[in-house]
Records
---
Amino acid sequence: MENATNFLNIKDVSTAFKINGHFYDAISHVNLQVHHDEILAIVGESGCGKSTLATTIMGLHDPAETQISGEIDFEGTDLLKLSDDQYNDYRGAKIGMIFQDPLSALNPLKRIEDQISEVMDYHSDLSKEEKHAQVLKLLDEVGIVNPQRTAHQFPHELSGGMRQRVIIAIAIACKPDLIIADEPTTALDVTIQAQILDVLRAIQKENHAGIILITHDLGVVAETADRVAVMYAGQIVEQGTAAQIFNTPEHPYTRSLLRSMPQRDNENDDLYVIQGNVPSLQKMPQTGDRFAPRIPWVPASAHEEHPTMHEVSPGHEVRCTCYQNFQFPDQVQKGSVTE
Amino acid sequence: MWKTILRRVLIMIPEVIILSILVFLLAKAMPGDPFTGSINPKADPAQIHHLMKINGLYDPWYQQYWNWVVHLFHGNLGNSYQYQEPVTRLIGSRAVNTLWLALVTMILTYALALPMGVFAGRHEGKLPDTVIRVYTYVTYCIPFFVILVIGIWIFGYVLGWFPTTGSIASDTSGWLNTIGSRFYHIMLPAILGALFGTVNIVQYLRSEVIDAKRSDYVRTARAKGVPSKDIYRHHIFRNSLLPIAAFAGYSITGLLNGSIFTETVFSYPGMGLLFVNSISYRDYTVITALVLIYGILNLLGTLLSDIILSIVDPRIRIE
């Protein structure tokens, strides 16, 4: 996947958190590339490390509580080698981040205008008037109807959807090359969701930015993503183009996820449920396929001892060998099923 | 804004009326009378009876209350039985002393507490934080009057840095010396009062700073590329000072309560000492007047807190 527009290259990145004096990997050995003009979706259930990956790229972890290894190559610079001050030249300027909860992500005591222009205070030489004009333009871009009025309001005077638009305005204020959107629509209702996704797509087209869209909502992924990476228990288990993932999913986890989505044309009303839970950080198995305990009918011999990524078609990679011959219990002949 | 304040002031009127009735009844409910202890013990009970009668102390309570209120509106709080002096004049001279003591204590309290609280919160879990926390716990555990006595012993007696009684040296002359001497007498009680008063503010502020540090809006600010020291300046400090600012009005109450201890231990001639003395002499007129003043000051403190909060927190403003 090496090509000229490949500007974010995450190589073998692991992030470990300190719990009771020991470090445990929240994400381990993640490899990902992001290109200009594309939306890369990272999907997975709660606790799989999606947000940790986002905050690792943003450098938002407290170094005393975390251990990060690997390399995050952003336009030729390894972000992980930067000091906090050097990182500040990237945060907000070249990488923008959109947060999950629009209700708490804005400072309740500051006017919207001040919160947006704060980004420009640190990353541009614009005069006060220019910044004011820019704030109004940004608010208009993210679809706020009356920018003049909103700029002078406080966060509590805005609805959730409007606050999320403001947060997007903050993230794109300096036209970053990379936008990380961490579940940008989770807290919003469905109609607002669609509008927010439209805004994101429009911005991406205009700025030729690369977007990392983190979500657990496969509907959102199907609607917006160009490429998809599926994460489970801190690892990427499958990645490929959206078409590859949705049409020919390979990894048991991806297939389970897709199968647990409600389908309109399904004559069977029962939803598929993945057995078990994501293991906690302390109990994460260090060898073998981390998904194996949740597909107990698959014999141990089908898994690799140290699962690696296998390319099944150009750009489509799957972890572990268990995807070969994988079948759900109800598809397997009776008798060979073990509960 | 003005509407909010006006509404709050209007609510205070029934509060003050109820307060005054309660205060009056409570004073009346105390056992004893103002004369038995102050007159020759061999005095004729009939004479005391007569004194009670001409002072209207046998009238029904509502009549006594009404007389008291009418006089109150004429600026007349009656005469002190103990000092044979108008209560207004008696309290007036003490109030100035108490006011100065409270003012200096308050300034010292905030001057100490704000940096301590912010510093502890910022360096949470590190050595300076632990030292400050131990200090607050220890101070919180010791009764205030014990702190005062220990303080007097160390700074007044062993080290001899400060005077331990009164509000002014007896041989003072000239206005500059007067101010100097008054200030010198205020210092020790004010410092000790401040040491005690900082505890709540430090703990409050520390936990506010810690909360703000972990808040989502601070993470947003970090994602904007705002350097750490500016995040503290523009986001964390202001947001965590909010409850402290609101607390400021109430802290007047704390200071007045504290002044009762401080003034008694230091024999400092203020309202607190007068209060304690007038209770032991059953000096009804003085007690009711003082409790009423304390009560009204409490109400004003609450009002002040509400006003401060509505200024600093946009979420509370009423359009």
---
Amino acid sequence: MTEVDVSLRAVRKSYGDVVAVADLTLDIPRGAFFSLLGPSGCGKTTTLRIVAGFARPDCGDVLIRGQRVTEVPPYRRDYGMVFQNFALFPHMSIADNVAFGLRMRRVDRGSIKRQVSESLALVKLAGYEHRFPNQLSGGQQQRVALARALVLRPAVLLLDEPLGALDAKLREEMQVEIRDLQRQFAISTIFVTHDQDEALTMSDAVAVMNHGVIEQLGTPREVFERPRTEFVARFMGAGNIMEGRVVATNGAVQTLDLGAGSVRARDSGKRSGERVLVTVRPENVSLAREAGDLGVRANVVSVVYHGATTHVHLVAGPADAVMPMVAHLPNRSASDTEWQRGETVYCRWNEESTIFLADRP
Amino acid sequence: MIAGRLLLYLAFGLCLALVLGPIAVIIGISFSPIDGFAFPPTGLSLRWYASFLASEKLLDSLLFSFRTALTVAVLSLILGTLAALALARRRGLLAASIQSLFMAPMVFPTIILGLAILLFVRVISAPLWLGLIVAHVLISTPYCFRMVTGSLQAFDPTLEEASQSLGAGPIRTFAYVILPLIWPGMMAGALFAFIVSFGENNAALFLTSPGYSTMPIELLGFLQFPGNQLIVAAASTVQVGLIVVLIVLMERLVGLARIVRGDRRG
């Protein structure tokens, strides 16, 4: 059995009438890079603050390395945290910033000095000891914040949208750097973000949160390719949500009637006549002008060129129940079909690409 | 462009003249060799400084003013800082009302305040000088409260969380993170409190007694009678000089420019 560094047991937190976190149970195995992903207000930051001790849960328990810390104040918990705005102490030099935690633990001077320079070297900031935070770039401040948290060798590293304040190019560099450091230290990490790309590229496991509950927990691949709810599908960029019913089951393949046309799907276990909610990722959709047995009939609303792909926005279905759809078509050669606004097309995809979602509540 | 520049300099010069002009005149005539207001002075002499230094009454009052102002600055700083710490981040009607209450002495007529405290001091038969300190603390606390509140509002609360996440409890977080960052605001508040108390006249009118008289009150006494009036100019110059020395000292100690700018880097 793998060791668990952080666990939340039925943790609930509400602010007034608003439930920020609802009966959350979660285990973070040692060494895992765990992302809490969701839109703002989904409870991900509150969850992190509960682990950090800055928010006290209304009920439930928080454990760090098996120790119950629910009532333990933040300064007696074993974690390191990197804040969204880095929160470096502006009146202290870089060395003093990194040394702060060691000083609070009354580590002796010599060993503080050694550990500070080791950590600064790890984040490639050797020689910056005597600078002040406002003399550093955003990326450098970020690294100081990491060094300051990691120098204590905490049981868990908490990252609160640490890349939000950086520009796009730097963000990508820091993603790699944070992940490298995390592997090097083999430190369990909880990473809060609203950016699905970040969560997918960095994590071992992703929990997609909405309204205080985890809608889906899985590897990046599972969450991206096999969303289980409409919310997760939309959040991961699979906006083609379609309602329909099962019309036939033929071996492992089912045929679904989506109103505007039929598609195939892998057997979902649903019986003929049952209502289903499905999605398909935009990059798995292909378009054709010719009608066939299969395919969802739709009208082109707009065509947007994106370089590697062209996004074709469509509407399908009758006027009283329009389904907006989108297809991301690869741009391979000049001979690619040019789609025109207003024309009628048929959207197709193979049966593996049809993803069944949990019914709407 | 050049015309705009000129206009800017002109406006700047005008402001400077308005602010510093009267002070310059007083400093100028304090060196007058004759007993009478004549500007520019007809010669240079230190006779008014000599008579100022010869006046035991004035020297005593200067010392008393200084001690009072120092006490007031310390007490106002403590009260103002504590109040600011309690209220700076509170939201809601109650906190807002208490905040306004703390600022109220600034708009309350100090002459009435002086009278009220005089009556109070009589009722509880406390010494007048205690009443004076209470009055000045009341008048000065809003400055400290305002300055420290400003520092605290500019202060990023996640720094406190960062400090706690690194193992510092509330006391060490205050000592190592909050205090160093609001220190300039505290010093600016104390400086204001000192200057306000040092020059305060209205409340002091009621609350001074022989031997416990502040310099502004003593100077007022000199102005009521003809002759020897330029000793007031000399005394005022000394007063201005003292405050300048104080500001320079503060500049050296904490950096006044930082205080004024609210810069937070050490």
